[in-house]
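Good morning,

Attaching, inline, the backbone tokens for the sequence recovery test we're adding to the shared suite. The designed sequence is right after.
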């Protein structure tokens, strides 16, 4: 198989995995907010994951599904879930003295 074909298959696999992660995040957000499972969105996530897994298996082999697909799927889920407000990732960590100063400011102000 030529490297060009492998590259195209991996681009398609990336799109499939990213869509599956985003779809799963949307389904989870709807379950948390409405209390009902969104089976349609879960089916879309499964379909996109299957598409990505097939493209990866043909392009680089079955281990690529775990190695490549797992990373792309997890990353797209985390980014979409953060965007939807399911959780928040903060890179800056304040020290305890900064937290105490902020708390004192809130009490007095």
């Amino acid at each position: 198989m030529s490297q060009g074909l492998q590259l195209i298959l991996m681009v398609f696999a990336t799109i499939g995995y990213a869509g599956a992660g985003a779809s799963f995040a949307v389904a989870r957000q709807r379950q948390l907010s409405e209390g009902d499972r969104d089976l349609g969105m879960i089916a879309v996530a499964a379909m996109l994951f299957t598409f990505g897994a097939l493209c990866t298996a043909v392009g680089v082999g079955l281990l690529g599904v775990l190695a490549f697909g797992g990373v792309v799927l997890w990353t797209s889920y985390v980014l979409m879930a953060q965007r939807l407000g399911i959780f928040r990732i903060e890179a800056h960590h304040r020290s305890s003295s900064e937290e105490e100063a902020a708390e004192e400011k809130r009490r007095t102000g």
